[in-house]
Amino acid sequence: MSDDLNPRTKAVHAGTRRSQYGEVSEALFLTQGFVYDTAEAAEARFLQSGPDEFIYARYGNPTVAMFEERIAALEGTEDGFATASGMAAVNGALMAFLKAGDHVVAGRALFGSCLYILENILPRYGVDVTLIDGTDLDAWRAAVRPDTRLCFFETISNPALEVVDIQSVSEIAHAQGALVVVDNVFATPVYSKAVQQGADIIVYSTTKHVDGQGRALGGVILGSKEHIRGAIEPYMKHTGGAMSPFNAWVMLKGLETMELRVRAQTTNAMVLAEALQGHEKLSRVIYPGHSSHPQHDLVSRQMGAGGTILSFDIKGGRDAAFRFLNALEIAVISNNLGDAKSIATPPAFTTHQRLPDAQKAELGITPGLVRFSCGIEDPQDLERDILRALEAV
Fold first, then answer.
1. Cα 300 to the chain's mean position, in Å?
2. Which CATH superfamily is domain 259-391 in?
3. Which of 11, 15, 218, 388 makes the best surface tag, with the fewest CB within 10 Å?
């Protein structure tokens, strides 16, 4: 397929493999193993497999390969490895490149499970980890040192929606020979320009916007062929974090409509951000696409849009936030995001519950904070739902 196609077309067609039956919808190869015509053929395939030759589903599968090629084409990377979940992707992207004695610098505004890997798992294996304010370029300059192997950050933090300057951090990291690994979930593949801005490895939880309909877990690690097949593939296939063929098929179906969904969700997010500005029940409204966001100019350069998520702080803390959540009629209460359905959650008591109160305060995760993932519902209906629920506060 031509490389000059636009992203929406790539999201529908890239990587397609058709069987002898010429099916329109991608085939689901629900098999864990593959048959060889002869013992010699088995030996040859284990020595060196071709692009359409498979050994075992943990190593690769035709349906999974279609998904990997399609999302890599969409992201603009040479290759990708699909994983069982977003956290399998984060873990693989870190562990595959690190060894005892290495140093990692990471933005401290991270999802709780990512922090667990950095604070609890990596130090067990002799990796030194420094956590910093990811929005502070001087902090990156001060923290990166000659033995820094890798820099890691969420391009937009969860849930306070701080934005890290990918290009500037990449320049700082590369000057010391460090890799740049970014968790790009909130930016989505629709708005991502991370490769052009210097990121070496891009990680997604495809559970979020790629599936987008609350059906399946998945993740993907994207980068150069050297990084993916040289470091990521051996680590992932031997530790068992591969995506299942069925989930890959679900993700392929999700990619077909992802851009349409994400752009509609982004429109909804902007409508809600405008409607909630200055509301008497709210102490702040955070949306990267709104001019009130302190890094709005960076967001405009880096993504071109604000994404699908906004957060707002309800005056009155936990009780007020819970009254608001319980009064919602359209939006559901859940800890997922990026879904076609609007989803609200109080991060201080769900996704980031395990963090100490001091760390929550440092990250801006207050008792009254609500993270709102916009769905594709009618924006006027969502606005009415939120404003009615705020009356209950």
1. 19
2. Aspartate Aminotransferase, domain 1 (3.90.1150.10)
3. 388
Supply the DSSP symbol for 217.
Answer: -
- Topology adopted by domain 7-254: Aspartate Aminotransferase; domain 2 (3.40.640)
**Among residues of the chain, what percentage have pLDDT more than 70?**
99
In the numeric block, the tokens 């102490």 are attached to: 283
Q: Which residue, chain included where needed, has tokens 């916009």?
A: 374
**Tokens read off for 41:** 């053929």
DSSP E strands in 137-249: the ranges are 148-154, 179-183, 201-205, 219-223
Band the pLDDT of 1: cuts 50, 70, 90.
Answer: low
What would the pLDDT profile of 15-72 be if each residue is shown by its tens digit? 998 988 899 999 999 999 999 999 999 999 999 888 889 999 999 999 999 999 999 9
Domain positions in the chain are 7-254, 259-391
Q: Where are the alpha helices (DSSP H) in 4-118?
A: 7-13, 39-47, 62-75, 86-95, 112-116
Residue 354 confidence (pLDDT): 85
Residue 48 and residue 45: Cα distance in Å, rounded? Answer: 5
Confidence (pLDDT) at 359 = 87
Q: 193 pLDDT exceeds 70?
A: yes
Residue 387 pLDDT greater than 90, yes or no: yes
Task: Quickly list H helices, 277-371.
Answer: 296-302, 317-327, 357-363
3-state secondary structure of 103: strand
Residue type, 36: Y
* 45: Cα separation from own chain's centroid: 34
Asked whether residue 161 carries a pLDDT value surpassing 90, the answer given is yes
CB atoms within 10 A of CB 282: 18
Nearby residues of 116 by Cβ (< 8 Å), 6 or more positions away: none
Pair type for strands 79-83 and 219-223:
antiparallel
φ, ψ dihedrals at 285, nearest 5° = -125, 125
